[in-house]
Amino acid sequence: MERDVQLVRDLVAVAPGFKDLFEAHVFNEDGVLPHVFFWDVVQETVESFLGGDATDWQVTLRFLEEQLRLDVLEVGQVVTTSFLFNLPWPDQPGYGLVDHLGPALRARFAAIRPSG
Question: Domain of 69?
Fold first, then answer.
């Protein structure tokens, strides 16, 4: 199994709130498309941060921080381009989530979105 697909499966294992989203994704996409799935992960994580969803944003950020530190190319690409880049912008609700990124996530975020 490719590392980016394993990333998705491991996220669902540690954050069961994503299980229904994952099952719908696999059904709709006829498999796992990590970059597509992570668009929904961003939406759910921001909603959780704002208090409107059961998915635990803290578990998600902690998991992604740990995964990014493993320095696996495919994982880093998904986390960077499909999670961090799609976080809310400074004028959007949920931007405060950025203040809770761990050191590895924060460094990547600053590299791809230096103005926030």
Answer: 3-112
